[in-house]
Write a structure and sequence with these properties.
The protein is α/β, with parallel strands linked by helices and 350 residues long. It folds into two domains: 242 residues, QueA-like; 85 residues, Thrombin, subunit H. Helix content is 20%, strand content 28%. It contains seven helices and 17 strands. The strands form three sheets. Strands 2-1-17-16-14-3-12-13-15 form a nine-stranded mixed sheet, covered by helices on one side. Helix 6 crosses helix 7. The longest helix has 13 residues. Its EC number is 2.4.99.17. Keywords: Glycosyltransferase, Transferase. This is tRNA preQ1(34) S-adenosylmethionine ribosyltransferase-isomerase QueA. It is an enzyme of class 2 (transferase).
């Protein structure tokens, strides 16, 4: 597959800037790859496609307020700092991205907060945009972490161009989010309300959780036409024994196993053993999935509508079939579905 095959015209007004009023009332396109049928619903209708004994797998990663703004010492230049991950608790080292990168050198100090109460020093250049910061803070780690997060804001994707609002901290977070570490919300999970989860539970649909800390690499531009030459950034993931037992039992009884989101689909594909079953996993994955790909565990997928040329679109195309998924995206544009993390959703059945 070539990068250019995943290009399509997406009008800017179809990129959702706001979520639907209620989590489970966005639009839902159902794509049946077995028949080629495409139908239109609202998200809570997803209940009709699952039965007693089926399994839904969710990503319980939790987004933290990763974007903050500081001022460079002496010049006072405004610098955006995007926290990626904590590297060392004792020394308060963080892996970050900075913009504009050209203004930041090793040894520079950055000041954060109205009273410059948080100070960081650049101690390493890791990439053209990346840096390692050491935060200069005297106090317990929990206190430091809270003070740092109080300075940050919800890291909405860059295609959401409006100002971040206070309520984004809640809506750009799944209601079951638990394990902190993501800078990108698993968007498919945003549509599940407590009421919908309860109705699925009453119907007998089991739910399990894995953790994959979604990073900024999902938004990184692919700069090669030959997709086999693209390398994904690594993301930390955890698959525990409880989920493994639930999923493998469901697979053995031929139940419907649904990945809620491309992050779940990638994590499951990264933790498959030779016999096609799921195994426990704790570590990192940089798996890049594009057509064709043989999925051996999940036979349905919930996903939002993704941007042109994105790795998430490629993964969805691998799952549903390239021609059918691109046809569905063409219909989505014509029917004015909303794209992006706050947009509408698609259910693919296999």
């Amino acid at each position: 597959m070539k990068l250019s095959q995943f290009k399509f015209k997406l009008p800017e007004n179809l990129i959702a800037q706001y979520p639907s009023e209620n989590r489970d009332e966005c639009r839902l396109m159902v794509v049946d790859s077995r028949t080629g049928e495409i139908s239109h619903h609202i998200f809570k209708d997803i209940l009709n496609y699952f039965d007693d004994g089926d399994v839904m797998i969710f990503n319980d990663t939790k987004v933290f307020p990763a974007r903050l703004y500081g001022n460079k010492e002496k010049t006072g230049a405004r610098i955006e700092v995007f926290l990626l991950r904590e590297l060392n608790v004792e020394n308060k080292f963080w892996d970050v991205l900075v913009e504009p990168a050209r203004k930041i050198r090793i040894g520079n100090k950055l000041y954060f907060g109205d009273d410059d109460s948080m100070v960081a020093e650049v101690i390493d250049n890791t990439t053209s945009r990346g840096r390692t910061l050491r935060f200069l803070y005297d106090g317990p780690h929990d206190e430091f972490k809270q003070a740092l997060y109080n300075l940050g804001e919800t890291p909405l994707p860059e295609y959401i161009t409006r100002k971040v609002e206070d309520w984004d901290a809640d809506r750009y977070q799944c209601i079951f989010a638990k394990n902190e570490g993501a800078v990108m919300a698993p968007a498919a999970g945003l549509h599940f309300s407590r009421e919908l989860l309860k109705r699925l539970e009453i119907k007998g649909v089991e739910r399990g959780f894995l953790t994959l800390h979604s990073g900024r690499g999902n938004f990184k531009d692919i700069d090669v036409e030959d997709l086999t030459k693209h390398r994904m950034d690594s993301e930390e993931m955890f698959v525990n024994e409880e989920l493994v037992e639930m999923v493998n039992a469901a697979k053995d009884r031929n139940a419907n196993i649904c990945a809620v989101g491309t992050s779940v689909l990638r994590a499951v594909a990264s933790a498959v053993c030779m016999n096609g079953h799921l195994m426990t996993y704790e570590g990192w994955t940089n798996k890049f999935i594009f057509p064709p790909y043989d999925f051996t565990v999940c036979n349905s997928l919930v996903s939002n509508f993704h941007m042109p040329l994105s790795t998430m679109l490629m993964m969805v195309s691998a799952f549903g079939g390239f021609d059918l998924v691109m046809k569905a995206y063409d219909i989505a544009v014509k029917e004015k579905y909303h794209f992006g993390a706050y947009g509408d959703a698609m259910l693919i059945l296999r």
